[in-house]
What we know:
Blueprint: E1 3-7, E2 11-16, E3 19-24, E4 30-36, H1 39-55, E5 75-76, E6 82-90, H2 94-112, E7 114-124, E8 128-140, E9 147-148, E10 156-157, E11 163-170
Amino acid sequence: MTHFERSEKKGSERSEGSYSFKILPHPADVKLQITASTKEELFQGALAGMASIISSEAKNKVLPSRARQVLIDAKLSKNAQIVKENIEVQSLDFNALLVDFLSEVLAKTDISHTVFNKLKIKKLTDNFLQTEIEGQKIDYFGQEIKAATHHGLEIKQDKSGNYGVTILFDI
């Protein structure tokens, strides 16, 4: 069951599967908080959250209630073509791997004019990711993201084994 909650003070929150993400208020940029039960789900949550930001027309807008419908606010291309891309990223550590992955997705988003919201991880270690991402072509973006940043980013694991991180996006 998908849970969605919206509050001006708390931001937009959604959960799907074994991850959830919440868009937090920030004076100049956008913050995305992700919680997941596995490292793989952490990457899926980050991708789905970033897709929600890109596809929303304003950073404080109420988002659609299902992760598969994050493309509602973005203008779908007339053919709504599905695009699949392969990504391989090698980084210094797991924190950098997440930012580098999102940066690769942003580059592919800009080049192919596609909002990517699904992934199939083929291999994941603490410093390497091989995955296939999937999304839909769009005519325009709701919110442009310039970059995923390393600012204050630290992936933590709680006593229950869940992972959490807050990512700052430069818009």
